[in-house]
Amino acid sequence: MIALRERSIISPDATPSLPGHVRIQYDPVRQAWAVLSPEKVFWPNEVSLDILRHCDGQTTVAGIISALALEYDAAEEDVAADVTAFLQEWTDKLLVKT
Amino acid sequence: MSEATLFPPIGMLAELTHRCPLQCPYCSNPVELLKGNRELDTQTWAQLFRQAADLGVLQVHLSGGEPTVRRDLEELVDGLAMRGVYSNLITAGVNITEDRIRALAEAGLDHVQLSIQGARPATTALISHMHSAYEQKLDTARRVRAAGLPLTINAPIHRHNIEEVPEFIELALSLGAERLEIANVQYSGWALVNRDALMPSREAVEKQMEIVAAAQERLRGIMNIDFVTPDYFATYPKPCMGGWARDAFMVAPDGTVLPCHAAQTIRTLTFERFGERTLREIWTDSPGFNAFRGTDWMQEPCRSCDRREIDWGGCRCQAMAIAGDAAATDPACIKSPIHARMGMLVADAQAAAKTDKGTEFIYRRIAQVREPV
């Protein structure tokens, strides 16, 4: 009866997306992007938002890292650590799925 | 209270009705329940939700009583979805058909929070005072998941089910819940009336905290477990509602707009009804909302405390109920001059548990008892 679920560990070939109960939305009252989830509202910073916007269920983590390295004109290995840590944290909170 | 510190509200709890098929003796509704003929009609709720969205509300929790007794719930959910407001249904999960759940999902409902009174059928029957509640709740959970909706299980914890916490964790996992709230009962409303019959022992609370901490670690990334701490055993108080009238409010079935569930137990405050004034006017300008906003109202030890903008003084209603002064430090705080009274009330409850069966609840019913004064 117990659901066999396991913690997802972020790997370069994972394809993260936002689960159905999480959505990013622009709030005209506060003029900021909000992430809405059960019981909680998050106000991600610009970098976090850029990562989340690439979580389309098709782009791999490696692909997200390459794209952000290009956008921010930064070294891929620097971007990789930040992106992986962020996605792992959000996956652990069930705000991102892979 | 300066204009600069007034922010728009993020969350709204809508108590659509006080009608409920269950009679849980810790219900957070006021002891003086409103009958169905006092409820706002569909159009007024819809208008209230539109004003809430305009004001900056991003999440609406549809609660009660049991919100699904309102036949217009789908229409209200649809109105929220049209405005991009995140809707959360807080339900007891009985007397709800599969079609109804599907219709709510189609109307744009975002999330369901289902209460379960005991991890065992007999416990749920004892607490809810409804024989078949457990089986119905499990059916509801399965139907919610089948409709593709995310699920939180809410387990209100007290003396009669605190030993079932490990079973609650397994039950929530087996139902495919994303989230489990192990919510120690807050002693206001009906729970205050039934405090001696509900209060757990310190040993049981400590054991529970170890179990929950271990489960949170073990289930990281699998299921979120939120732990609502028991005030009477606390060192510091909870920042009740995130601070009085700071980023959330609630609305009673008759449209009375309140900073929290129990605010009307503070008899010196007056609150206004939606319709008499707009929601924006009430939020920014109501004397009841402004009474404990920010930190200017605080007395010592809150006033000079480093934690004053963490705890916001704790719960005003608990200060009223135990200290007899709504502007006092929440007695849950170790710095409160009457903090020791919390321990004495716990001891009283444990003594009461030994003298009677400990299950002699005053069940939640309309016109059953009056608010303790």
From TrEMBL, chain A:
Pfam families in UniProt: PqqD
Keywords assigned: PQQ biosynthesis
Top-level taxon in the UniProt lineage: Bacteria
Gene Ontology BP annotations: pyrroloquinoline quinone biosynthetic process
Record InterPro entries: PQQD, PqqD_bac, PqqD_sf
Signal peptide segment: none
Pathway: Cofactor biosynthesis; pyrroloquinoline quinone biosynthesis
GO molecular function (one): quinone binding
Summary of subunit composition and partner proteins: Monomer. Interacts with PqqE.
Protein name from the UniProt record: Pyrroloquinoline quinone biosynthesis peptide chaperone PqqD
Organism: Pseudaminobacter soli
Gene name of the encoded protein: pqqD
From TrEMBL, chain B:
InterPro entries from the UniProt entry: 4Fe4S-binding_SPASM_dom, Aldolase_TIM, Elp3/MiaA/NifB-like_rSAM, MoaA_NifB_PqqE_Fe-S-bd_CS, PQQ_synth_PqqE_bac, PqqE-like, Radical_SAM_PqqE_MftC-like, rSAM
Top-rank taxon: Bacteria
SMART domains: Elp3
Entry keyword Zinc: no
Reaction catalysed by this enzyme: [PQQ precursor protein] + S-adenosyl-L-methionine = E-Y cross-linked-[PQQ precursor protein] + 5'-deoxyadenosine + L-methionine + H(+)
Record domain Radical SAM core: where: 6-218
Entry EC number(s): 1.21.98.4
Pathway: Cofactor biosynthesis; pyrroloquinoline quinone biosynthesis
Keywords: 4Fe-4S, Iron, Iron-sulfur, Metal-binding, Oxidoreductase, PQQ biosynthesis, S-adenosyl-L-methionine
Cofactor remark: Binds 1 [4Fe-4S] cluster. The cluster is coordinated with 3 cysteines and an exchangeable S-adenosyl-L-methionine.
One Pfam family matching this protein: SPASM
Alphabetized NCBIfam families for the sequence: PQQ_syn_pqqE, rSAM_more_4Fe4S
Subunit relationships: Interacts with PqqD. The interaction is necessary for activity of PqqE.
Family as reported in the entry's similarity comment: Belongs to the radical SAM superfamily. PqqE family.
Protein name (record): PqqA peptide cyclase
Organism of provenance: Pseudaminobacter soli (ex Li et al. 2025)
Record gene name: pqqE
